[in-house]
Structure formats: structure tokens, C-alpha cells
């Protein structure tokens, strides 16, 4: 009898748990030193992605980018993208130019091997957190921005300005095609 009441209690707690606890999550590890460069930048691990994690629920998409080095006082840009099966894509940015931190979210297009931002979206705000100690940048966006599809693909890109040029990295995205290379993540 005690076992049965414990089972009923566990089922009740599971039903009361917020939906985020049941999010589907995908994590991609990324090797150090796989960055691209523009100009002749000094060797650095600044904004070199080491891990990218996406969680997807019926209400939000959470994307966390972990990097090898993050100096929140130097210029950087983190961009995350989400793609629905119907081809609709959303891009969210957090950018620090050395003075002001800026975020925005817009429709995304993939012409000629590059990512182009379209119209700014009014489907809700992108929230973000920069944690210099954990070397993470986390962004949350409403899943309604993509029409709350059954599944999504996600990607992350970073860029840092360093002495001599810029360095950039990407995870689950290929500039060659251009295309998302990660798996579909169901909600």
C-alpha cells in the first residue's frame, strides 16, 4: 500500500512540474582551435565555442553557448539561429561593441552562403545572460517566433575582434551550403 501511495504522489508531482523540465535538449561539443580568421589576428581562444546546448519546449527556445575565453569587457558578438521545418528561420544576437550591450531578434535568410537578418520580429523579447565566470552566453526566445513547430534545428556563431583582425567560430552550421548541420530537436 505504501508503494502505491508513493507512486501516486510521484505521478502528481510530475504532472505539476513546469514544462521546461520536459524540454528536449541537444548538446554539441566543439573542438578548440577550429576558428576562422579575417586579417592576421593574434592567436587566441577568445569566443572559441566549446559547447552549444539547445532546449526546446512549447513556450521557449533556450540556447547556451559556452566558449573557451570570454572577456565581457572586450568587443564580441554571439548569434544563435533556429530553423523550423517549413524553412522559417529566426536569428537572435547579443553584441558588445566595447561600450554598450545590444540584443535583437529578426527573421533570418541564408542567401549566398551568409546569414542575412530580415525584419525585426515582434513576437516577444529575446532574453539573455552573459556569465563571464562560466564563459557562457545564454539566450531565450519565445517558440511562437517560429510558429511553435514540432521540431527545430539550431546553430550558434561567435565573433571577436582581437589585435590584427577578427576570429569567428560556428557550431551546427555550415557556410559552404549554407545549411544547418545539427539534428532536429523535438519539443
Written overview of the protein:
By secondary structure, the chain is mostly beta strands. It has one helix at residues 2-16; strands spanning 24-29, 36-39, 49-56, 60-67, 76-83, 89-96, 101-109, 116-120, 127-131, 136-142, 151-162, 165-171, 173-174, 179-180, 185-186. A hairpin with a 5-residue loop joins strand 5 (76-83) and strand 6 (89-96).
Q: Which key features would you list for this structure?
A:
single chain, globular, 187 residues, 1 helix, mainly beta, 50% strand, 5-stranded antiparallel β-sheet
Strand and helix map with partners:
Layout: H1 2-16, E1 24-29, E2 36-39, E3 49-56, E4 60-67, E5 76-83, E6 89-96, E7 101-109, E8 116-120, E9 127-131, E10 136-142, E11 151-162, E12 165-171, E13 173-174, E14 179-180, E15 185-186
Antiparallel strand pairs: 1-3, 2-12, 3-4, 4-10, 5-6, 5-11, 6-7, 7-8, 9-10, 11-12, 11-15, 13-14
Strand/helix succession: HEEEEEEEEEEEEEEE
Q: Could you estimate the helical fraction of the residues in percent?
A: under 10%
Report how far apart the termini are: 36 Å
Inertia-based shape: globular
Radius of gyration: 18 Å
| Content-based structural category | mainly beta
Tally of helical segments: 1
Number of strands: 15
Largest beta-sheet characterization: 8 strands, antiparallel
User: Mean pLDDT, as a whole number?
Assistant: 83
Sheet-strand content, in percent, reads: over 45%
- As residue ranges, the low-confidence spans are 5-21
What is the quaternary state of this protein?
A: single chain
Amino acid at each position: 500500500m505504501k508503494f502505491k501511495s508513493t507512486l501516486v504522489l510521484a505521478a502528481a508531482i510530475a504532472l505539476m512540474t513546469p514544462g521546461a523540465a520536459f524540454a528536449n535538449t541537444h548538446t554539441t561539443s566543439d573542438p578548440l582551435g577550429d576558428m576562422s580568421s579575417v586579417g592576421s589576428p593574434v592567436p587566441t581562444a577568445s569566443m572559441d565555442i566549446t559547447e552549444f546546448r539547445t532546449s526546446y519546449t512549447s513556450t521557449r527556445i533556450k540556447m547556451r553557448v559556452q566558449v573557451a575565453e570570454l572577456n565581457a569587457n572586450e568587443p564580441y558578438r554571439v548569434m544563435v539561429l533556429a530553423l523550423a521545418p517549413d524553412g522559417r528561420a529566426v536569428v537572435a544576437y547579443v553584441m558588445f561593441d566595447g561600450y554598450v550591450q545590444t540584443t535583437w531578434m529578426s527573421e533570418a535568410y541564408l542567401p549566398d552562403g551568409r546569414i542575412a537578418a530580415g525584419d525585426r520580429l515582434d513576437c516577444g523579447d529575446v532574453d539573455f545572460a552573459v556569465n563571464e565566470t562560466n564563459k557562457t552566453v545564454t539566450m531565450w526566445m519565445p517558440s511562437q517566433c517560429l510558429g511553435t513547430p514540432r521540431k527545430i534545428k539550431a546553430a550558434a556563431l561567435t565573433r571577436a575582434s582581437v589585435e590584427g583582425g577578427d576570429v569567428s567560430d560556428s557550431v551546427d552550421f555550415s557556410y559552404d551550403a549554407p545549411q544547418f548541420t545539427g539534428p532536429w530537436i523535438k519539443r
